[in-house]
Each structure stands twice: as C-alpha cells, then as structure tokens.
Fold this protein.
Amino acid sequence: MKKSIRALAILAVPFMLAGCVSESGNSSVTSSSSSSAQSSPTTSSLVSSASSSVGTNTHVHNWATTWTTDGTQHYHACATCNEKKDAANHTFGDWKTENLGTKISDARFANSNIKYKECSACHYEQLDTSFAVLPEIRFTFDTTDPNANFATAARSNDVTRPKVSGNITITNAGEYNTTEALPASMKVRGNQTAGFDKKGLQINFTSKQSMLGLNGNKKFKKWVLLADAKDTTVSRTALGLTMCKGVIAADSNVWYTDFTPVSVYLNNSYWGMYMLAEQKEVKSGRIKLPEVADEETSTEIGYNFELDYYAKNEAAKGAEGDPTFSISYGNYFNQQSYNIESCLANSGLGVVSTYTMNSNITDSTAGENVQTTDATSAQMSFMKNRLQALFGVLAEGSKNKAAKDINANNQVVNAPSGTSVKQAIEKHFDLNAWAEGFIINAVCLPPDVGYSSFYMSFDNSPTGDKKLRFDNPWDFDSNFGNRRNFIEKPDVASTGSGWGAKSYDPYFMDRTANMWLQFLGKMDWFMNDYVKPKWIAARNNKTFENMISLANTFYKYYDGEYTKNFTKWTTTQASDNNVGSYFNGDGVNSGELRKPFVNVNERKDAQKETINWLAKRVNYLEKKFVTNSTRTPLPTID
C-alpha cells in the first residue's frame, strides 16, 4: 500500500525528484526546477503528504569534510549518495617547480622534478605534463649508426648483441648532472624481452661511475636500463624492488638492486621511460660473495647462478656466453601428480633443471678469468654436484620426511641419528633468505620463476657458510597479475579475463614449476617458523602500503612521462608479438597480457587494476599465512 501512495505522489508532481534531507534538516532537491517547486504551496503539501505516508523516503546526507576533486572543480561529496555541495572551480596560483622527493618526503623520488600549480582552496595540483620530470640518460655514439640499429635489431634470445661505443651524459638531474661526457659502451640485454621493439640496455663504463646516487653513490662499471616493455604501467620493476626492500631484512645476505626511473635518449632521440638499475654481479657492494682472484683454481669460492631455461643459448654466444650445467630432479616428483602449471612447463617444455653461472669461474685451461663449461672446470663440476646433493636433501626432507646430509664427496647420506628434517635442511640452506624469497614470489606471482630469472648463491669460500640461499630477486615485468594463463587454467577463457574473477589468488606455491620453492612450501615448519614471522615483519614495516603509495606517486606525477613513452612505443607488443606462440588464444588476444593490461591507451584502468590486484593478493596471503588474522585488509579502488 505504501508503494502505491508513493507512486501517486510522484505522478502528481512530475517535475520534481525525490527529496533528500541534509544533516541540518534542509531539503535538497536535485531537479533544475527545485526553487520553484519549494515555493509552491501545492508542491509543499504533496511532499509533506508523501513523506508522512512513506515514512522512510528521506536520506540524511553524510557530507565529507575533505574535498573531492577533478580536473576542473572541487566539492564536498555525500558519502552515501551522489550529491555534491560547495562545488566550485579551482583557483590556481602560479606555476612552480619542485623536487618530487622533497615534496612528498620520499628519497626514492629525489631525482625527479615536477612543475605544477595548486588550487588555493583544495590544494589540487595541476601538473605541466610537457615538463621533463625524469633525469635523462643521454648516450651519443658513432654516427655510422645514426638510427640506433644496435638497439632495434636484436630479437628474442639472439646471440648477436653488438656493443656500441660512445659517451654518456646525465641531464635534468640536479646535483647529479654530468659536466663531462663519460666514455661507455652500450648493448641490448635480456632474453625473451629482446624481442620487443623497446629493448633493455646494458651500460659498461670505461671506468667506474656512480649513477644518480644509487646504492649509496657507489661506483661500478656496469649498469642496466630495464625497459618494462610489456608493462602498460611501467611500474612493476619499481613495485617488485620496493617489496624486496620491505621484505629482506637488514642483516640478510640477499642482495637486491637499487633503482630509479629515467628517460633515455640515444643520439638525442627520445627512447623512452626506463628503470636505471644495477647490474647483477658479484662485486663488493652488490651480490654478497667473495670476488674470485685471477687464476683461482680452488673450488672454495663463491658461486651465483640462475635457474635458466635459456642456458641452452649460452654456448652459442662464444666468449660472451656464461658456463652452464644441469642437474636431475630424478623420481622425486611427477609433473602431473604435483599439478605443476606454468606457461612453459605445460606447453611441452617440462620442468627446467638447467642452470647458468652468473659469477666468474677462473679454473680454466683457456686462461685467467675465462668463463668455462663444467667439462673443463673443477669449480663448475663442484657446483653441479653440490646443487644436485642439495636438491636431494630438500626433496628427501619434503617428500619422504627423511633427514639427509652431504658428505665430502657431495653425496647424499643419512643424517646423524636424532637429526630432524628441520635440522638437516637448516644445516644446508639459508632459510631466512629462502623465506624472504618465498614471500616475494608468493606476492608477485612471477611466471618466470619456474624456468628463468631465479637466482641462488652458495658461498664455499673458507669463511663462507656453505649454505644455499635465494638471492638477487629480478625480473618483475610480467608479475602482479600482468601475464595471463600461467598458473591456473582460466575457467572463463572465452571472456579474455585470464585467470577469471580471482586472478590474485591461485594456490601458487603448490603449483609452481620451481621445485625449490614448491618443496619448501610443503613443509609446515618452514611456513610457521620462517615464512610467517617474515610476513608479519613485512606487514609491520608497511611494506605493501609503501608499494601502493609508490604506485600512486608514479601514476600521478609521471603521467606526462607515460604519455611520452607510449607515444614513442605505441604498443607493448605483448598481445601480438612472437611470444604469443607460448600460449593458447583466449578469444581476445593470443599473447601474454591479461585483458586489463593489453591496451596502452587505457593505462589509467591498468594502473587501478594493478593497485587493486596487489591489495587483493596481500589480503589473500594474510589469511593463508596468519591464522585468524585481525589486520585490516588493504583497501581497493572503486
């Protein structure tokens, strides 16, 4: 009956919308005829009649005390409806230039300067998107290559990577501007990513140089420019490395690179927005292993190596290639029974067990400091046999609940009587480092980690701990929900949504093709005694909130830099280039990216999706790692 009365009342005044009462009791009417309606006796009586009949047909505004803003206006919004009050156009002051790091009290952005003007009422900032915000790395080189062919010709896994000599200057970087040209060479870096038009680059200075204050302004010859070519937010490297800083403890032996965003110019031609980072190498101040002396022949050295599907390409590089070795995973697992699902493992390539040495091996018949194969090097043979034994200790403990040890000949033997599985694995693994690596990979869901870009170190020097550790986390451009169909078979593939509605919560560590992480994750004591405390410490350090804050800073203040980058590189290519052959089509694209990240013209949506994905992923893991957690979930963006 009440519904009928309300309908009649509204029909009697077709020019009037339903009334909305403010906290002061005044009626607020959204119709353009509101003033005449309120002054009409007939209308007033009808509203009164309708209100008394319905009883609940009013809404009390809950006005926000802070401004809501857009590009032209500010206003106070009702928290429960779409009403606005106090709407007015912005009143901007003069343009001003300021250091971004100083402005937001975040040293990570001290290399960036912004130009903006501010509304005097709501403090909304209008940015000058034509202003050059980022420091500029400018490489000038031989004019016989005016079109920078060295930076465009290389393809995926191509062994031909010509080095080009020239000079580097740094501009738009305040105190870090270079006053002289620095002699250096440059070449394309990366494996699969070299197939994109926008390629990663490696810098090799003639003499050691510091770069933009990174790593405490330490000097090194080698630096890298990471392209993030398949990331429409150009932020995943920054997010991953920010997470590393929050997860990896100050006393950890795990090294991770420092970074800063830059603009790159080749022969004065704009080349895009990149992340300047450190070369992953065993050097004092970088990967924490003893540096190997020339002509060192002892096996008592430090080793750093990569789980690497692309190890097969190293031999073809000749003197430029790195030594490789393989181990066997034996009968410890069956790919089907372990439900291993990764893009490469399930496309017929199986689970990768090939490794590439990243550190120098000098025990060689070919001369000092020559990278060699395990056929000519006692050092390579030692590491191969040691890693095989370490895998045996881990697999026996995880799968068969058997405590094992390693003898002087790198053979797996029974541990002394009374040794628990936990004690046996603790003896041979730096489990604090592995817990840090477990969390980093659990959060960002890296498709690569099962077959490449997964690094480990083993310090067999006289003062080394003789333990295997996870090290130098790397390669984040496919992470944080960017890549489709690598861990779960999509249940709604025809809609092109990749993993479906819950892309943030596949049960990753039970399915990853990385056998080290999978075996560790199956042991309750490792999760409870190592992963959980590290996770809680990371949450207490505001690690994930800091990641979201960094993302928001990137997306707000670097908007003009994004525009320049995607004007130069009009597509990520990840939806249509040759890497698409690794995947089954989903009706939308046959390439790598999930639907929200395919179109560079929709980067605002991609940015929001990245933040929401991260928040959902962290909230999901909080429930998995901390039973009955009372921590407030990270918020998502509407």
